[in-house]
Amino acid sequence: MLDPKPIGAGGWAIAVMGLSVVLTVGLISVQSWVLRRTRSIAVTGDRAHYAADLASNIAAMAGIAGAALLGLHWLDAAAGLLVAVWLLWGAIGVFREAGSSGKWWRVRSTLIAGLVSAPLLDAEGR
User: Fold this and answer.
1) What is the pTM of this model?
2) Domain ranges for the chain
3) Which of 29, 21, 17 is nearest to 66 (CA)?
4) pLDDT at 24 exceeding the cut of 60
5) What does the angle CA 40 – CA 46 – CA 51 come to, to the nearest 5 degrees?
6) Radius of gyration of the chain (CA)
7) pLDDT tens for residues 86-125?
8) Of 36, 38, 79, 125, whose CB neighbour count within 10 A is largest?
9) DSSP string across 4-21
10) 103-117 and 75-101 helices cross at what angle (nearest 10)?
């Protein structure tokens, strides 16, 4: 953002990102179909991950296109900030869903039980 460089192969980069977007949309569609049938928190988290990938792919494509075609070199950094916000939002949603379903409590209880039952080391690390 402070010292932007021109993109040399913008057309190829846009084409590769376009293919990535198409494949990611297909994956998210299949995950959504599975999620409607299972309501799995694991699939929800995985889908949020790929939705963030999709957003970052689109943002990268917009940044590349803006820099290569329009000379807007700052657009890539702005798109990166937008993706960071998207990732944070998705993570908060997954944590909320896990917390409201009670599954987080079981994970927490299992972790605590594992820590409590672990043998303690003496002062010399034995």
Assistant:
1) 0.58
2) 10-116
3) 17
4) yes
5) 125
6) 21
7) 778 877 877 777 766 666 555 555 555 555 554 444 455 4
8) 79
9) ----S-HHHHHHHHHHHH
10) 80
